[in-house]
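Final report, Chapter 2: Outcomes

The project's central promise was a pipeline that accepts a single protein chain and returns its three-dimensional structure in a standardized token representation, suitable for archiving and comparison. That pipeline is now operational. To close this chapter, we reproduce one record exactly as it appears in the project archive, with the input sequence first and the structure output second.
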Amino acid sequence: MTPSIPHETPRCLLLACGNPLRSDDGVAWKIADAFEQNTANIGVKVIVAMQFTPELAEDLRDADTVAFVDASATAATGEVSIVPLTPAEAAPRTLTHHMPPDSLLRLAQELYGKLPQRAFAVTVGAESFELGETLSEAVRAAIPQAVAALQEIFAEAL
């Protein structure tokens, strides 16, 4: 009889960014909160931040699957998009307080020699980035769809 080898649970990471004081820009925070409240999401580390910063490269080093969640200024209001990501062609020349997800993936690869096997951007089209703490109706209505998309992404890894 061959001894069984323990299977390590894949490491999943949800990175949500936005400003909850800028109306729809805070949708990623709401999505992350709704995702965390679902007990079926055990095994996914959730980090909520104002911006995707270089410091997050360390968390990417340990992830097998990552989803970057954010509001979109270009998509139709309330439209949920899921886009597979690959690292940027080159590492950022300067480090700023904000990095696009593909640059953050490249930075993790440059610093740690490791990348998540799967990376996705999950965005919701925003209507307003004005000062305020309330989401527009269409953006608020898109939260369950975004959470379902994240559950599907991570279900394949868990």
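Archive annotation: Residues 12-155 form a domain with the Rossmann fold fold (CATH 3.40.50.1450).
This record, like all others produced under the grant, will remain available to the consortium after the project formally closes.
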